[in-house]
């Protein structure tokens, strides 16, 4: 029992409302139900800060690449991930996102939102992508314009597509052969 | 900007003697400060834009950089070129004047 509590405490460091813990000797990753409202932290940086960060990002895709998702106004986005080493078990016991990258159409809002999501995903489990909604994303930037909801939809959908790619073992090589 | 817009174009629009129907205005860089709430020119512009159906749009990147994206006058939006073209696609302008 004491071991479980200690594991829970150490697992709070996992972001995205998820924690990793050992229960009866088996390591699990689970959702923290207390944080079900919104799993994203309110950004202390502005949309412009993330746009600038997104513009200077590395553009080559990482090994696990999601599908290219197209939104309104011919906007497109795609995320890719590098995973930490670790044995894959059940879907919730897999490795963490070590590095996240993205490619997106040139739109200030879209690039900023994708940069924010990429930063947030690093250190999280891939499943964290499914806990985020476009509404959550927009509330992280209270000074953003709410008229950009379609960009948030696209960014979140692209993130989920990449997470699904991990579940399907969709690496760049496999995408190229498909 | 205060002279060309505030002392020529805006009074003409308010008086209905500008000579053409203005489809929209798009603002770049520091000109976006004109569109912020409380700006005398911006407030007058918002009023006449509402009356005449004029699109008011600020460059989104410029507004984010100045942290005024959420401080624009009523009716003004932010966007980039594709948003501007899309917004004006229904009634494309015959003339484009750059100030």
The biggest sheet of chain B amounts to: 3 strands, parallel
What is the tally of beta strands of chain A?
6
Give the spatial strand order of the biggest sheet of chain B. Answer: 1-2-3
Q: How many distinct beta strands of chain B?
A: 3
CATH hierarchy: architecture of chain A: Alpha-Beta Complex
Structural class of chain B: alpha/beta
The proportion of residues forming helix of chain B, as a percent range, comes to 25-40%
Fill in the CATH topology of chain B.
Hypothetical Protein Ychn, Chain: A
Integer average pLDDT of chain A: 75
CATH C-level category of chain A: Alpha Beta
Pattern of helices and strands of chain B = HEHEHEH
Instruction: Extract low-pLDDT stretches of chain B.
Output: none
Q: What's the level 1 CATH class of chain B? A: Alpha Beta
Looking at this protein, list some descriptive labels.
A: 178 residues; alpha+beta; two-stranded antiparallel sheet; disordered N terminus; B: 99 residues; Hypothetical Protein Ychn, Chain: A; 4 helices
Description:
The complex is a heterodimer of chains A (178) and B (99). With 178 residues, chain A is of the alpha+beta class. Chain A has one domain: Sufe protein. Chain: A (Alpha-Beta Complex). In chain A, the strands form 2 sheets. In chain A, strands 3, 4, 5 and 6 form a 4-stranded antiparallel β-sheet that branches. In chain A, helix 2 packs across helix 3 and helix 3 packs parallel to helix 5. Chain A starts with a helix and ends with a helix. By secondary structure, chain B is of the alpha/beta class. Chain B has one domain: Hypothetical Protein Ychn, Chain: A (3-Layer(aba) Sandwich), CATH 3.40.1260. Helices cover 39% and strands 12% of the residues of chain B. Chain B has a 3-stranded parallel β-sheet. In chain B, helix 2 links the parallel strand 1 and strand 2. In chain B, helix 1 packs parallel to helix 2. The relative contact order of chain B is 0.18.
